[in-house]
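Q: Protein A?
A:
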Amino acid sequence: MSLFKRPRVLLIAELADADMVSVPLVGWSHSQALAKVADVHIVTQIRHRNSFLKQGLIEGKDFTAIDSEAIARPLNKLGEFLSGGDNKGWTTKMAVSLPSYYYFEHLVWKKLKQKLRNGEFDLVHRLTPLTPSKPSIIVNKCHKYNIPFIWGPISGGLPWPKGFDSHRKKEREWLSSIRDVYKLLPGYHASRKKASALVIASKNTWEQIPDKYLDKCIYLPENAIDPTRFSAKKKDSKLMSAPVRLVFVGRLVPLKCVDILLESTAKLVKSGQVTIDIVGDGPEMSKLKSIVDESFLHQGVTFHGNVPHKDVQNILVKCDVLAFPSIREFGGGVVLEAMALGVVPVVINYGGPPELLTPETGVVIELGSREQLVERFREAITSLIQEPEKISLMGEMAKSRINEKFTWDAKATMMLEIYLWVLGQNKVKPNFGMPLN
């Protein structure tokens, strides 16, 4: 490592915004952590320009904003119309927005091709979007000029679980049943064949990669946390006589299955053994409030509505258990946020969330029918409230796991290992374990 040279990285992050959540916040947080270990120039979409400037970055020096609005704006509106809004129809929105992403990358190459050809960057790293259904068209050009191209973390393509077709329809996921059509898109094979490395964010996405490309794949989950955003401290240790405080954080949409949480814990709420804080809003809010009314759960259930991301920790830190019955979750960033504050997650064994946990840091419930999930959640919560000291111990171990493996700085250090491997400075392909060990 005495010959270590900070890689010069052109970082493509179409979605990157410090003032947003989900993928844009991942793009922003990850890019800023990478800037600590590499010489990074970020390319983003012009909608995020003001956020970059507000954070003190200098346009032209630290980042380039690409104006693809001529195509992106009308397609975004079309996607919202076809999906019906309300944070639904994700697959439809992805499909409709594909031409605008192709156009974005076209403009990126047009703007920066001379710098790339002149060798001003050691590699290109496409950070966002995360979805595997948006191939890169730049990868061909990079390959032509011997510029290493890294794609990832890549996350998505999780099938709808069997037995929940009604939830799929409520989410307006009409295209999910033919989602594999994206494998016929221009750039699908080239993005995988000509990339120097593919960073894969979940086991399910790994299983979608053709065997012939696995030698360039490295597992690394997409999410992490910023310790400065989740630094609140619990005031008191768990009292044996106190009710266990459950919390759900997320969009109130059918796939999150908050109704399962309410049904499974109704008796525990009525008996005063647990309380539930529900943080978030969405089209399911009226349904969930009706369940609370009809089941007489008012004394133990609090609806907080939408809460600014920076303030969520103030609620989380007062809770003991994150009850998260989502049946189709790609990453599960809220799980890491809860763990960072010593809140013990209870999740379903499907998608990204269970890959973030160990048996010592959370509870994983096997997927089943709706009725089975109600019963399994009830059993898991009941088991925890019978051993409150176990909640405290698991919470402390969850915090330790986050601090060791899931901060953005830790993620950037792992990504740097990938950079150095691709550039030939490290001869051994990185292996961080699947899940991270």
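Q: Protein B?
A:
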Amino acid sequence: MRRSRRRSIAIWTVLIAFTFWTVIPIGLVVLNSFKRAKDIFTPTPTLFFTPTLDNYVNAFTKASFGLYYVNSVIVALVSTVIVIVIGTFAAYALTSFRLRSANTIANAFFLGKLVPTISMLLPLFVLINGIGLRGTLIGPIIAHIALNLPFVVWLMMGFLRDVPHELQQAAIIDGCTRMQTFWKVLFPLILPGVAAAFVLSMQYSWNELLFSLQLTNLDTYTLPVGIAGFVGAISVDWGLSSAAATATMVPLIIVGFFVQKHLAAGTTGGAVKG
């Protein structure tokens, strides 16, 4: 009993410490977004201050943050939807059709996940610049598709392999086509995996900085690039950057809240089945 109690206390201590480690920085950013500069730079941090919305107003009116927001929504949604569609059907083909090279292709996708993303910057930059798409939203969309696709294929293959093959055979015997079998039989079963892949892919695309910085210009900057612009060589506008960071967190929190049930099952299932 004593050993079990000590173990429980140790586990709860670690969980509480990790929660504080995660929540406190986010809380400070949110608080700073409602503070004036004089309140941010006080010698002793305080939780009691007169809140203001000036930082949010300046971010969306004077700093072109609204344009960066729209650009990020377009890049993240388009790249994520394309990745989910292509990745799910690619995983379906690799797990359902009898292809001699299926395992080789699957291993190639897995190796693509292991390649450091920084090593892909130069070839993608040369390719996108060569076809005249640098400075457009299509450039980062292509880059994010290339970066997220191996992960989605690898994740969805884990879920599709766990579905009994007899279900597909029974549906085909009953007269369903391959597409009807996928939508009516398989898709409801792999929905948690699709939700997990959607949120994780969108999160990466939403927060990605390096490729977006190199492949866009002033009119096509995404949110991470725009927020990085608030950091000057001499000073940092903490209020403006905190407001921008807080507004950037909101969409992913909303998406995660609505799909949290599927997301929890998807991430856990993918870790075991993949």
